[in-house]
């Protein structure tokens, strides 16, 4: 064991696998581990990844963690028994929502289902005005009586939303204090702690979601802390936020909703690091795991973020109003189940076999064919070399179940059925990419797609063809990439304040004062973290809209604009972004400042660039493990060389078809594709025109 702990350990829990990446700050060595996720005993899966890499917790000085526990609790609706306290007269705004009806002619449309039933929503006698001044005093005695009733009903969590608390949180603070006094074991969340923006529906939805997942998430984090302590870990424990930044576990126990998209966000941070290393400004980060596929965008070297998101899809979603990575997710992964429905319609996902029982190929009791099983049947996975041979795959079982459940009912042979499953999966996954590019006014074809996740490289070429993307990059260790991305994360604190001022009228003194207040909060939070950051970076942005509009766009604003007090530069920046997003702008129209945003980053030491030795254009003979038949739609079964990725050198070039195998992933190089290994060990693929 090292005298001074130097190991930075990162663990990402996914729906199927738990991944670990560790970085030795003294030697620069990288270590990786992977294990099946142990749902119900998540800590056990984490320990399995540590054991697989031969790591001792006592060598760790920093533990970084991302998990799907928060978002899964929301989507599966298995959170705490939660009550909502809300300003008198506004009991039903949580259920009324925005009255969105995206499918106007669907007679069977159902709107969102609140996480708190109406009988557990209670009105509080109080009222503040829009400027935060007092209109009606808080009835503290009534709140105390209500709290006693809630305690008798066995309430586990309480969310509090009082109107205009983003201007003046005094009433919310007092209500929370009373609730904690009367229900000491309950998880209590006040809306102003999470959001300093207007929009009461979004605020109440965010507060309720945080309360709903709070008890389960905070209990899990407490169990993990105890486990680390029992193993002798004496370092700092940080959680990855949905922005990709880090915050202390103590904050995560209170603001649990901030870690909804922690794993996917870390993957985008890893893709950003790849872009920086290669001098590449624009990229699509695409992550396909066992349960879902996710996409985000790096534009001009920076990940695109959003101030709110809809969890569960637009039609029936509940909004979450916190800063997060702009990520779109679809329910298609390696474990997505294929089935034949009424009318002989073949469907894939969103139901997943997960890790228990897992795909049929895993031999753990799964009986329904999945995307992974289809890849095995088409020769793209090797039954003897999956996960480096640690998990033997059941090819005969896959053939039997595919024939009985899919091929037979559809009148196809198993190969055609497996190919059909992959075609549907690829089309569905392409929707995630389009949602963060085409629907944002961006040309997906002009971006390089950085593909990772255990299942991502299997489908990268096919997805690129579906969308018209010409370049794909498979990074080093794609099967561990979300955990690896955490090693590039920085300490991060985000702040926002709604201001409602016309850009032409507001004084720079007022703007500067508001920004400085938030920046000082961020600096203080960094100082209190206990971690010595390499430096501090301040980023400013503003939500802006044209006068008369309802919704705003978030505009990044360089500090130089404020130093030179250049109002026209701020307006021009907004006009240009509006043009990209909506295809139109109005430079002559006045604009509103809706909210001011600040991000305070405490930069951390990053892992060194991974590099590989230089080679010739032709890979060494020892890089080829063998030749096997693989099915491609354009030409049927073809004898395909299988390369071992660890034996490929910088400058090696490979023409498709080919398979590139590594411990936790396999890259499919389609016929017509041209692959080159760069100096960092990335696989850069120029996509051909064949539809394979």
TrEMBL record:
The record's annotation in InterPro entries points to: ACX-like_C (IPR049517), Hydant_A_N (IPR008040), Hydantoinase_A (IPR002821), Oxoprolinase-like (IPR045079)
List, for all copies, the residue spans of the domain called Acetophenone carboxylase-like C-terminal: 509-679
Residue intervals of the Hydantoinase A/oxoprolinase domain: 203-494
Species name = Hydrogenophaga defluvii
- The protein's name is Hydantoinase/oxoprolinase family protein
Q: What is the lineage of its organism?
A: Bacteria, Pseudomonadati, Pseudomonadota, Betaproteobacteria, Burkholderiales
Q: Where is the Hydantoinase/oxoprolinase N-terminal domain?
A: 8-182
């Amino acid at each position: 064991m090292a005298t001074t702990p130097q190991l930075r350990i990162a663990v990402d829990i996914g729906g199927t696998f738990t991944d670990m990446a560790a970085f030795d700050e003294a030697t620069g060595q990288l270590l990786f581990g992977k294990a099946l996720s142990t749902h119900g005993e998540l800590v056990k899966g984490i320990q399995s990844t540590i054991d697989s890499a031969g790591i001792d917790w006592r060598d760790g000085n920093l533990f970084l963690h991302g998990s799907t526990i928060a978002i899964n609790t929301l989507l599966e609706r298995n959170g705490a028994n939660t009550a909502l306290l809300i300003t008198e007269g506004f009991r039903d705004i949580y259920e009324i929502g925005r009255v969105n009806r995206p499918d106007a002619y669907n007679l069977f449309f159902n709107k969102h289902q609140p996480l708190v039933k109406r009988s557990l929503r209670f009105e509080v006698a109080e009222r503040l005005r829009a400027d935060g001044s007092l209109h009606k005093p808080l009835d503290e005695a009534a709140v105390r009586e209500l709290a006693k009733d809630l305690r008798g009903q066995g309430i586990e969590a309480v969310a509090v939303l009082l109107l205009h608390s983003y201007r003046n949180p005094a009433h919310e603070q007092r209500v929370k204090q009373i609730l904690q006094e009367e229900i000491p074991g309950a998880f209590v969340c006040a809306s102003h702690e999470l959001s300093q923006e207007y929009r009461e529906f979004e605020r109440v939805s965010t507060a309720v979601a945080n309360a709903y997942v709070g008890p389960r998430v905070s209990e899990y984090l407490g169990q993990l802390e105890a486990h680390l302590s029992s193993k002798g870990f004496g370092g700092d424990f940080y959680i990855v936020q949905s922005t990709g930044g880090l915050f202390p576990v103590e904050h995560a126990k209170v603001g649990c909703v901030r870690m909804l998209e922690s794993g996917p966000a870390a993957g985008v941070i890893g893709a950003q690091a790849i872009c920086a290393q290669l001098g590449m400004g624009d990229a699509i980060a695409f992550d396909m795991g066992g349960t879902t596929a996710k996409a985000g965008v790096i534009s001009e070297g920076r990940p695109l973020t959003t101030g709110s998101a809809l969890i569960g899809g637009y039609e029936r979603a509940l909004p979450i109003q916190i800063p997060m990575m702009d990520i779109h997710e679809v329910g298609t992964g390696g474990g997505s189940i294929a089935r034949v429905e009424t009318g002989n319609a073949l469907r894939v996902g969103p139901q997943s076999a997960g890790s228990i029982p897992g795909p049929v190929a895993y031999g753990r009791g799964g009986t329904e064919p999945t995307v992974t099983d289809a890849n095995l049947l088409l020769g793209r996975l090797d039954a003897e070399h999956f996960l480096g041979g640690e998990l033997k795959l059941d090819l005969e079982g896959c053939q039997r179940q595919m024939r009985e459940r899919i091929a037979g009912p559809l009148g196809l042979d198993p190969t055609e059925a497996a190919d059909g499953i992959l075609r549907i999966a690829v089309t569905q996954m392409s929707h995630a990419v389009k949602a963060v590019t085409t629907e944002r006014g961006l040309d997906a074809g002009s971006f390089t797609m950085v593909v990772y996740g255990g299942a991502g490289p299997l489908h990268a070429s096919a997805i690129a063809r579906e969308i018209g993307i010409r370049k794909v990059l498979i990074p080093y260790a794609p099967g561990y990439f979300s955990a690896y991305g955490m090693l590039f994360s920085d300490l991060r604190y985000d702040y926002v304040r709604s201001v409602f001022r016309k850009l032409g009228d507001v004084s720079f003194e007022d703007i500067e004062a508001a920004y400085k207040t938030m920046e000082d909060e961020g600096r203080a939070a960094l100082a209190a973290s206990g971690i010595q950051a390499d430096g501090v970076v301040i980023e400013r942005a503003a939500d802006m809209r044209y006068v008369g509009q309802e919704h705003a766009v978030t505009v990044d604003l360089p500090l130089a604009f404020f130093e030179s007090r250049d109002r026209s530069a701020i307006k021009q920046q907004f006009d240009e972004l509006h043009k990209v997003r909506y295809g139109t702008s109005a430079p002559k129209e006045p604009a509103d400042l809706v909210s001011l945003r600040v991000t305070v980053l405490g930069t951390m030491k990053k892992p060194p660039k991974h590099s590989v030795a230089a080679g010739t254009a032709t890979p060494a003979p020892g890089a080829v493990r063998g030749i096997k038949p693989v099915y491609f739609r354009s030409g049927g079964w073809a004898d395909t060389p299988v390369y071992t990725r660890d034996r490929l050198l910088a400058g090696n070039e490979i023409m498709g078809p080919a398979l590139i195998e590594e411990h936790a992933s396999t890259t499919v190089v389609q016929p017509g594709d041209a692959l080159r290994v760069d100096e960092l060990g990335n696989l850069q693929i120029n996509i051909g025109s064949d539809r394979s």
